[in-house]
Each structure stands twice: as C-alpha cells, then as structure tokens.
Automatic annotation (TrEMBL):
GO terms for cellular component: endoplasmic reticulum membrane; plasma membrane. It is found in: Cell membrane; Endoplasmic reticulum membrane. This is Extended synaptotagmin-like protein 1b. Belongs to the extended synaptotagmin family. The keyword Calcium applies. Residues 396-419, 836-894 are annotated as: Disordered. SUPFAM superfamilies: C2 domain (Calcium/lipid-binding domain, CaLB). Pfam families: C2. It comes from the Eukaryota. Residues 401-411, 884-894 have a biased composition (Polar residues). Residues 851-866 have a biased composition (Basic and acidic residues).
Amino acid sequence: MKKGNKDPSPKVQISLQDVMRESKVRDNDNVQTLGSLSIPLSRLLSSSQLSLNEWFKLTQSGPDSRIHINTVLRVLWMDESAISSSLLASDQDSLTSKCRASRPKHTSPDPSFATEGVLRIHLLKGQNLVPKDNMMGGMVKGKSDPYITINVGGNTFKSNVIKENLNPLWNEMYEVVLTDLPGQDISLEVLDRDMDMKDDFMGRLKIKLTDIVKAKHIDELFALNDVKHGSVHLALEWLPTVTQPDKLEKVLHYQAKSSYLNKAVPAVALLFIYLDSAHDLPLKKSGKEPKVGAELVLGGTSHKTLVCDRSSSPKWNEAFHFLLKDPWKEELMVKLSHCWDFSLGSVVIPVRELLCQPDLLLDQWLNLEGASPGSQILLRAQLKILCPKVISENYGEHTETPASPTTSVQKTKPEKDLTQKSSELLVPVTVTSPVITLEEIKCEETPDALMVTSEADIRHTTPDPRFATEGVLRIHLLEAKNLIAKDNLMGGIVKGKSDPYVKISVEGTTFQSHVIKENLNPTWNEMYELVVASEPSSEILVQVFDKDIDKDDFLGRVHISLKEIIQTHYCDQWFSLNDVKHGCVHLVLEWVSTVTQPEKLQQALQLQSVHTFQNKALPSVALLFILIERAKALPKEKGGKEPKAGAELFLGVTSYKTKVCDRSTSPQWGEAFHFLLHNPNEDNLIIKIQSRWEEPLGSLVLPARELLSKPELLLDQWQSLNGAGPESQILLRAQLKILASMMDRNVTKPIEKHIEKPIEKHSDKPAENPAGADILMGGRGEERLQSTPATSQEIKPTPRLNELVVSTVRVAVTHPEEKQSPAADDSNKVLPCVSTVEGDREEPITASQSESKDKIEQEHSDKTTEHTVPVKPPTAEEMKEATTSRYSLPQHTNPDPSFGTQGVLRIHLLEAQNLVAMDSLMGGMVKGKSDPYVKISVGGTTLKSHVIKENLNPTWNEMYEMILSVDPNLEVKFELYDKDIDSDDFLGRLKIKLGDIIRFQYHDEWYNLSDVKHGNLHLVLEWVPTVTQPEKFQQVLQMQNSLSYQNKASPSAALLSILIERAKALPLKKSGKEPKAGAELTLGGTSYKTKVCDRTTSPQWHEAFNFLIHDPSKDMLVIKLSSGWDQPMGFLVLPLKELISKPELLLDQWLSLDGALPESQILLRAQLKVLNSKMAALVAMGAGPVLSNKQAATTGQIRLSLSYQKKLTVVVHACRSLVTASKEGLDTYVSLILLPDKNKATKRKTAVKKKDLDPEFNERFEFDLSADEARERVLSVCLKHSVSFMARDKDVIGQVQIDLAQVDFHSGVTKWFDLKENNN
C-alpha cells in the first residue's frame, strides 16, 4: 500500500547492465519505490531450456510481496563472415568457464569415504558352561538358560535363549559395518536367563578388532573369563571388498547355501553413498526457499541427513552405507523434502545399474523427479562386493581391499564451434542428460557415466543374468522288482507281499506315486516334471514304502546326484535300493535341454502324443519365462489415492503373485516366474494388476503363440493394459524355450517283464565278477552269470528307451528255509538286483529242483564266497516283533462322549428403536440424541458393536458366531450404552437363556430393554443344528453370497471338530534328546496349541478343538509339531475337501507327517458337520430378517419390457405415481446398468423429460451379450432427476434391480416394477 493506505498504480522499469538485470516497481503517481529484484544471468544459463517461470520475492518491500517473472534467454547467432571466429570462440570459452565454475561436476568426498569393512560374527555354540539354576538350596546342581550379548562398534546383538542346556547350540550370524581403527574390541557376555530376578553372569570375552582384520578369518573355541569354566565357539571374519562384478554370482551362490537359526541372510555387497549437494530446488508454496533434508531408503534401512538452512541449493557433504542382500533386485531411493513434510523431489537408483559401471562407481548430477525441470542432486555411489574367505579358497582367487576409488574421466570429443549461420533454422535444445554444461550439450558421444533415465526413456527390461537359465528335470518312474515282502501272514511263518508306492524328493518338492496292491514287482509307469536351476547342489531322493493302515513300512531308498543327471542329460537305469536286503527300481531321468527354434515345437508335440502315463501326466513341450519389470500410468484407487499395486499371473492351473509395491502409479517389481506349457498354440498368459489384491487396475492377455513368431521367441517391450487408462502400460520380458527331449531321438519300446525259467542244472564253474562293473550312479556292481546251454537261466534285459545300456543281471534264488553261511554275512554290502517272478506270479519249484538247487548252492557257497553276499535271516523273535508291531498302538482315537457335541450360536444384531436420549443440550432443556453401541456377553466372551453417531433408532446389521457347549442355564446378555468421551451412559439391558434359544432354534423378535424408561432391540437369535449331509453345503454357501453385514462377517458353513490323540516315531532333537512335543493347529486366522508333553518320541495329548469353516472346498487345516515351540518336528496339511468324500464326514486314522522321519505319524479324529441353518432356507425362499429402520419406501413405478432375440433388449415405456416434494414437477430420465460391470459398454440412458411426473419414454436399448452371459447379469434401473451439480436435491428418485436369471427370455416379460428409495 502507499503511505496514505491507497492502492498503488504500479509500472515496471527493466534495465540490463553487465549480465545483470534489475526490475523496479514504481508508483505511477509519486515515483515511490515499491521493491526491487536482482537475478544473475548465470542462473538462466544453468536452468533447463535457458528459461525461468516462477515467483520471486521483492527486496525493500513487504514480507509477502512477490513478482512473477517468465523469461527466456535466446542466443543471437551471427554470420561467420561478419565476425572473427577466434573472437567468438574466446567469448564462448569465457561464458562456458563461468557456467562450469558455478557448479562442480563431481563430488569431493573425504579420503575416508568407502573405506569401511564388514565384520561377520558367526556364533556357533557354547561348551561346559557354568550351571546357575541350582536346586535344593544349591545342594543339587541344575542347568542354565544361556544367551549371549555381543557389543561392537556401538551395536549390540542378542542371541536366542537356549533352555536348560550347558552345551547350547546357537548357529546365529550377525554383521556390522566398521572402520578399521585401533582400540576397538568385540565384547561378549554369556548370561543365564531368569524370569523373576537379574540374569546371572556366566562369563565374558574380549577380542581385538585389529587381530581379526589381520587374520581375516578366525574359527576358534574361546575360553570365557571371570568364571571357573566354559567356552564359546565363534567364527569371526573380516570380509574383504572388491569392485569386480564377476565375483557377485559366486557370492550369491554361497549366500544361498547359508542357513542360520536367527534367519539372518549374509550380505553380498556394501553400498556407500556420499550426498554432496542439490541445485535449483523448487520454492515452497509461500515462495520462501526450503529447509532441505534428504532421506535415503534401501529395503528396510533408511538414513536422514541434516536439515540445511533455507536454500534452493543445499549442501550436505554426508556419507552413508547400506548392506545389500541382492544387488540385482534392490533399489536406492533418495527423497528430498522441506523439514520432512513437504516433498521437493526424489530419485531412484537401481543398484544393478552400478554393476555395469567402471569400478562399480557412479559420481555425477542426477535429475530429480517430482521437482522443477532443472532440479538436480550431486551424489557418489560406490558398490563393493563382499568376498568371504570360502570364495577365495574354492576358486583359488586372491582378494584385497582396493584403495579409494577415483572418478572415471569421461572422454569427450573436442568442443565444436557454437556458431550457426543466420540462414539456418534454429532448433530448441531440451537438456535431459544429468550433465548439463553447454559444451556437453553439443557432444556427440554418450558419456560413460550412468544415466538415470525417466520412464519414457526405458524401452526394455534389465533382467538378472540368471533369468531363463532354469531347465526341466523329467522323471519317469517305470517299475521295481524283488522288493521286500512286508505283509507277512500267520505270524511271519508265511511270507506275503507288499503294497508299494514311491516318494521322490527334489529341491524341496515331493512327488508320490499311486499304491500297487500286493505286488513285489510293481509297474507304475508315472512321469513327473520339475523346473530346477541349471547348477543345483541337491540330489534326488527316491524312497519306496509299503502302504499300511497304521504305519507305512520302509522298502528302501536311493540317492542320485542331480548334478550328474544334468551333465549326462539322459539316464535309463535300474537302481539298487539301499538300507534294505534287496530290491531295485527302474527310472528314466532326463535333463531336458531348451532351444529357441520354433521348428522343434512340432517334434515335441508329436512326442507328447505318443506317451501315456498311469498318473495322467502330459509331457510339457515348452518353458515360458516371464519377467515383470514395472508399470506406468496406472489408474488411481476409487478414493483418489495412488494404488498399492501387485501383479497376479495365471496360465492354466498355475498362478503366481508379485510383491505389493508402495503407493505409486508407476510400480516396480523386477520379479521373474516360469510356466510349463503343454501346447503353446493354445495356452494364454493372463496378468491381472490389482491394488492390494482388491481393486482391479488393468489386465493383459498374452497368447503364447505370439512368441513363436518373434526372433529368438523373445518379447521385451511395453504392453498396454485392458480395463485401465489409455496410457496405462506394463513392461515385461517373455522368453519361450522349446523342450528338446532326447526321447524323440530313440525308439520307444514297451516295458518287458523279466522271465525266469526253472533251474535244471548249474555250472560247476563259479561266476566271475568283472572289474568295472559298477554303473554310473547305480550304487551297485552287476555280475554276469556264466551258463551253458544245458543249464540256462535266461534273463531278458529290459529295453532302455535310448538303447544305450544293456546289462545282464545275475540271479541268485533263495528260500526262507535256507540257512546262509555265517562267514559270508556282510550287512554293509548291497545285494545285486534279483528277478525271480514272471509278472506278479511266483514260479513253483519241484522237489527234484529243490534238491539239485541245494547241492549247487552249497558248492557255489564254498567256492565263490567272495562274490556272493548271503543275508542272515531274521530270528523268530524279530519276525514276531515285526508282525505284531503294527498292533501295539491303537488304530483309532478314543474320544470323550462330549466330542463333537458343541453347537453354534449365531447372533444377528439388527437395529434398535426409541432409545433414551442421553446427550442433552442447554443443561437438559433441549433433548438431544445418543451415540449407541451394544455389548454382548456370553460366558467369558464379550463382543462389541460399532458406534452409531447421534441416532435413537440405530441400525447395526452385524452378525456374530460362537461355538458353545449345550448349557440351558447359560445367559446371553445384551447391554446398550451411549458413547461419551468421559463415561459411557447406560441405555438398557436384556438377558436371554441359552436353553430358550436352543428350544426355538430360530427367533426373530423385538425385545424390550430393561432398567430404562423405553427402548427396543431387534435381534435374530439362532442355535444352528449340525448335520453330516454334504448335500446341504450348497444351500449354506448360497446364503453366504446373499447376506452382507456391516462388520464384514460371513456366516460359517460348517463346524470342524479335531481330536489330537497322539503321535509316534517323532525325530530326536538336534542335541540327540527326545523332544518335548507340542502341536499347533491353524485354520485361517484361528489357531490353537496343545499342552507340551514330557520328553518322548511318542507323545500323547488327547485334546479336542473346534473351528468354524466358511468354505470346506478351500479351507485347509495345518498341524505343526515342534519341541518346545522352537524346533520343528514335522507337519500335516489336511484339506477339508477330503472329509466331504468320507462316510459321515469323519476321518479317524494315523496320518504321515511331512518334514519328519518316514515313519513319523499322528493319530487324530476329524469330524466335519454342516451348519443346517434355518436362515439359509429362508434366504433361499427370498425371506429372512427385515430391517424396519431401513425399509426402502416406494417412490413410484416404471414399466419395462425384457426379451432376448440374439441380443438382450430392454424397452423403457413410462413411469407413474412418482413421489416428489417439488411443486414444479421433475426433469426425469432413466439410467440402465448391467451389473456387476460398470463401463460404457453396459450403460444406457434415455432422454430427459421436462417437468413431468408421469413421463413416457418408449425407448429401446440393446446389449450385445449371449443368453448365458445375460442370465449372469443384474439389470439396475435408476430413475433420476436431471439437476445441476450445485443443487441440493437428490438426483436418484428411485431404483429397481432385476435378476435376469429369473426372466423368461423365450416369451419375454412386460410389467410395472416398483421403484424403491435409494438408501445408499
């Protein structure tokens, strides 16, 4: 304002002098200075596109005075003939030097930057520790509960507590980043954990850091100080760092093999960040310069800088470091803000991009996203690989910590002249590179330094080098022979057969064959496939079992090196079973190579059509690898927030989910998946993008056949999303690889049985065992039988699929009554495979043959004991024990009579009316309202509804369920309160006996509230009876879909009762002791725990539990057994759908445990009962509870015609009897939507009828749907009032929803429908 408080009449005067410009605002009347501003021209030169467009604060003026300036600098180019080139070059050099002097190109960190190292501490175990928990006043020594604290470099680590152990095993790992300075110690203390008093001291230890750095690696048992005895085993390693990216894969491979009890994952790299400064940050909304701080986030670790004083170009000069688990996946985010609350921009640096930089170093200016065009940040990022000693030893390499890295010098061509002829067209230059000096704008070469590009610059994915390197292991389980007979008869006097099946475990995946009944030479002919890494470290474990009712008997196992299978590619072989007397299994193992030649597909499909397997498996023909990199421009959530996006991938019955990203419309995943394909010409990949797996954001359908026409069968690009915005896209990499099986190069022949002819005569010459008879991975030596034509025992070898191996197996026929020579007994040798049957039938042996055979065997035993391995038969006591062992434990549970008798009380809290008003106004002179809620108490359980604000007729519409034993005298209590800030006011109570609810079973009634003047409560109380009829499930599940409650509850469909009886043959603890076993049962969000038994491998619990089930076809019960809740002893997963097929929905038997010993089992009883709700029957008939407070009033009628003639046709005729408060009539139109879809294709609306309460429309609409699709839709019809968006009137007059499944499309329907008031 002017001095007289008058508004000024300003004018602006601009002057330019010596690369400075001044702008003065003056009063036109009195030449009164109102303010001034000075802007250096160098600021224009350093800004993006040489322009400024912002508000500036005036000096010599008021505190809020601002001026907005939009200025652009343009260089006036002159003709070369009109000016000396040398003069122009001199001027240009001067201009460039001034610009370059204004900002440094690189950081200048302290010499100590990136010199820290990593100390890795591996706490293994303790030995002979001091006992502190003494008993009987110290007369009897007890044990201790030891744990360890480690202090180093200001960091404290604490181990787990090991209960009652003086020789504890921890196996925990810790890492800390330290500077190698003298005087630093590692302090370790061992303490005994006590519950009620101070933890007892058990010893201490100090180790100098310099000793560890000097030795690099120390693995030693350290004696504890200040105690009588005790020691701790530690492995301490100072990790050298290297800047060689080729070491990363070896370190990652080492990391994958490491496993620690504290779940620690060894770091593979160390990232150092030096934050120098920022430039040209945006001003605050008030126009003031910001107080800038930077936050660095990587994974779960974050650091913050100091907050600088007000400046748009702050300087920090601060250094930070991060430990990395996988540089290929992790990203560093640097976020700048004003005082941590107002965002000023950010930059994201994928760590993997540092791996392609010289010396793994980035040092330059980077553009900031979400800031001004010229906003940048200068930082230095140094990546160093942590190389453990084991890597150096295994690969014979030497590593050392390099000196401080130096910034790589960017080589540029000599600067070109910046002159241009006046006749040439001037093209504006947009600077997008992080390096913004003028001389580099014209540089033709791309700098070697890393360019952090925007989404528009990203064209392709950046996959991990391990992407698409997996292969397929194909396992063909053919047959077995000469298995051990486990099902003996007559107390073991007569040998029976076995019911064999096979378990195959590879890389954490287990396949199980079907059971062959009563057969010692079974044929399975089953095939399994698994995608595994090309450099596995595991093996294939094949185990054969005999299926029994109580406990499956062990029939042998064999370990096969997966690495050798990958090297040989194909193996067709008989493998002898280990840990048993005899038996072999025939397997074909193939590592299927992959190619990117589409012409190989037809050959693979032909091979697929030739093979048939008993387990209905179909050989895959291709492997599809998918890398989901990122997305951009995703739509926002309905609430306007940015989505938390996750991607779900479907192909056939296989599905995967990515992680859920933080809120962003441009999420980044960088996750890879794979799918086995059976026909790429028909298979389709579906990718659905959702926000928190709830709200769809778009989808993509990728037919696999499209990849067949791509070079190298590879697609790597942005793909548009359906059901999203036009600019919404996803960046992915899809690599198709054809499986080139070796089976298609060989003649496939049917499996032939081994045929044994009767033995008539045996050669006097003993059989010879040639050297080198062992076959690769077979684990046995095959011996050839020498025979004459007169004494022929013919063994016809099984044709191999590749006809590479043909071998004759020597047959040694034995009988139970034969006694083997004790001198020849050797249990450590493996017997050769024996074939003694034809099919499943044993050959009879005559008496003469038996005599001849006895004689021959005696001679053969005397001469060739070095070649045969007789087996000592079991004693009578052993046979009797083996026969009766399965009957020593009960075969079924022994439940209490009360087991499974519980029921379900379902409480439907609907509404209340005429409640007492407790929130009075004006000292009680004016009555107000109440904020009511309800407390429900049943036994020791209390439930609470949500609060309804300011309402004396509230509607809750909430449902609760609880499992109760039948107790007629149990009271169900309801108490209503008015929610207040200080003390809640009482609004009434109600008590109902459980016996009354059980007698009525279903009761829908208004109840009067007691102890208050007035008030009613509307409840539906139901005691839900249970039945064991699975056909009742459908009705209950329909009720679930029909009802919705405000508290998001869903009615249960069934009640599951579980009795955990006992377990047997549990594994021992790692210490060798028997476990203290407890069982934890989990189903959905509900879990229970049994008691913990005393030490035994066969614990008994006899405890029962109940679960409410919402969908038996999907729910699964998980039972985990552990010792003291910390060491797993096995688990069981029981899908409830298996109970539906059982008689009376009951399962009562022994079940094998996964993750335990082969013989580990648990005995339980599982009883499923369907909740036969009366409400379900009422809902099916269209009845059920009615909310009096929420009954929608009729607001008129609408006449519609519905029919189907190749298309769904809807005719809107007219409306009548419309209810309105308007005296001038209504401007009405009708809106049609086909639910559940709400898009343009399913929406229609009529024209607007002005000022008419009985409007006639007579408009016809068609929807292009099939009849089946139409029957799945609901037609929503809304009569609306066309009002201005500023008006207060409601736009919806009434609505009706028509279920098209109930409409007879063949004859059509024309009728008046009631319009209901919109309660939403």
